[in-house]
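Query form — protein Replication restart protein PriA

QUESTION: What is the three-dimensional structure of this chain?
INPUT:
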Amino acid sequence: MIAAVVVDVPSGSVNKTFDYKVPPGLENWAEPGMRVIVPFGPRKLQGFILAVKQSSSVKGIKNITEILDPLPVLTPELIDLGQWLAENTLSFYITAYQAMLPAAMKATYEKFFTVLRPEMLSSEVSVLFSASGELSLNEVTKNHVHLLKKLQELTKTGVLDVVYKVKDKANKKKVKFVSLGNKTEAEELLNQNGKRAEKQKAVISELLSRPPGEYSLQEILHETGASLSSVQSLCKKGAVYIEEKEVYRDPYQGRNIKQTEPLPLTENQQNAITPVLDSIENNEHQTILVHGVTGSGKTEIYLQSIQSVLDKGKEAIVLVPEISLTPQMVNRFKGRFGSSVAVLHSALSIGEKYDEWRKILRKEVSVVVGARSAVFAPFENLGIVIIDEEHESSYKQEDHPRYHARDVAIWRGKYHSCPIVLGSATPALETYARAQKGRYQLAELSSRVHSNPMPEVTIVDMRDELKKGNRSMFSNELMEKLKAGIEKGEQSVLFLNRRGYASFILCRDCGYVAQCPHCDISLTYHKRYGELKCHYCGYKEITPSACPSCSSEHIRFFGTGTQKVEEELAKVLPEARVIRMDVDTTSKKGSHEKLLTSFGEGEADILLGTQMIAKGLDFPKVTLVGVLAADTMLHLPDFRASEKTFQLLTQVSGRAGRHELEGKVIVQGYDVEHYSIQLASQHDYLSFYNHEMKTRKLHQYPPFYYLGLLTFSHLELMQVVEASEKAASFLSKRLSPDSLLLGPVTSPIARVKDRYRYQVMIKYKNEPELRNWFEEIIAHFQKDKSIKDLQITGELNAQTLM
Ligand code: ADP
Ligand code: ZN
Ligand code: ZN
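ANSWER: The structure tokens for Replication restart protein PriA are given below.
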């Protein structure tokens, strides 16, 4: 029996399967989709069996060393999907398969020295091997680095050998349980006297007092004050059993989640859910866009669609942007479907994620709620995939494999003949365009469930405020409303759009801006540490007290960070209790949730924050939303800048007046005439869509054209220029006349980590060979020995140009 294995070497030359023999003992076990360990050159590597066959044309093939999984971890569907994924994202097969599995299942490798000729070792070296007969390189570099040279020499002369071991991080949590054994034995023990028996008797009585069953050993010890050794001697006598069992690490354990019942749908909801239910009923793949304003009852539609999928014995995946995967959100699904829900969230530990994932593989759950990568949940009877906030950019992975969760979901929908539901108040332009063309079905939910009106939005031009002599970052109207809110005991949310608006250091005399010496972007000021920091490479320096360029002392930090807003608030509204949420205050695990809970419990008047407060939050007492600097994102070199601004403003506004109290939104900025701000304030998606589509058409951007992007980076500028020019001329000879070739030009971020970046862009409608040409270019430079360390990434459907 032969297994075709793809091995853990992300490189173009091994981007294929290799044949290995399945040793006779493992023949009944080996199946496609299992992880294995195989010899590869001098190393041992992890790999995946993609197929098994009877024979191989390759001579001298080696044996599989070990099979790591009792059952396949990749289903036949996922094996196919991985191939498609790798080919369409220009990634290696191994990278695609690894992306589908929890991080815990990716092996790490360790190097060990072992002894071949013990008699040749000095006592100094010999003692290192005495414990286990082997010595990890890790251990040597940590504790015996002075011996490294010697060990290497001994290896050369054949006294020592080097072996590679694969470490599987996928460890399972085990807990000891105790249960009553032989009953007569136990009752006899109760009649015994003697001090030593006291604790043992306590254990027996405790177990007898409970319904028959097994109980956590730790709990029993805690209840009775007995020691482990007393229970162990009970075990020896046969009075109790101790058993070690695998348990799941459940981050949601102990939470009280209220059970909810399906709500009778409104007429609007009924209309919107019909195509979804039809698709489920007829086992027919459809992509359905549910376009509904915030509060229009999309989530209830998701819940009832899932119910109908579960009724058919099938499974459901719900994707939610990382940032909105709040406990509130999770509870809505757990409240309806209880313990059949698994949650895959990046805030979980590696072990917790692995456990949630195994519940899926073992079919112990039938609903998964999770961020982007949950789209790979290994269900075999998938009945629906729902993507909430489908326009969110976090659904695109900006690292290998550069996939979009929406594309993967639709692939799976076709495979399983089931519906894919895309939900949003502000669908991506691409999505809405497809719905208009009829490629997706469109379901519109045009009003809120409780028909409370959309909040009223006021736009404030901060230039006018300045003319009126108001130099603060809060307009007069915003100040008034914040004060009034505090007096009435209502809550406010202050949103600061920080993307592209980091607080930087500027010299007022010469205009010097502190820049990262390794990347072409300005450094961000962090007041708490008195530091300037680069968000791309992590470079840090102490904030200068004088301008490094002209020595002026008029160097200060500029721009509005959340810290600065918080300080201002303390000055002008000292009575306000403020909770600040940004990357600095939420870096600790669980802090995000803690801050939100305390705001929900009314412990603050104002929630101040960045992007992370824009979504999903639903607090009944919030009546005011203030947006500071609404226009900052408009000026980024990104063709989606207007779309992102519109989406963000719509989303933030949706935080106000979701319940009985009426909501009010105040939007501040300097460039507030822009259509994305004006139309967001009127809650007018369709006009925005039409306006933006004209702009995109004019400038030949998606959804009218796809963007192919090749990015080159190298430490030397000349190398990137040369390579990108070669690539551009290669492409220009081949592209069809309808496609446009732009560049090579420097990337919008021209240097990162000292590497210069150049790009070649292709705008195309139909270019079936483009993928092959990109692959050819990448392979060409990989083989070219005259350019070392050139990095190239290719993308066929780039979402951003950064
Ligand atoms: P969306 O997901 O579109 O933002 P939600 O599903 O959160 O909207 O619905 C907004 C509110 O309306 C929620 O509090 C929800 O419980 C309630 N709701 C939704 N559908 C109904 C219904 N059919 N009847 C009564 N209340 C509903
Ligand atoms: Zn940097
Ligand atoms: Zn200066």
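ADDITIONAL NOTE: The pocket of zinc ion (ligand 3) is lined by residues 507, 509-510, 512, 547, 549-550, 552 (CB under 6 Å).
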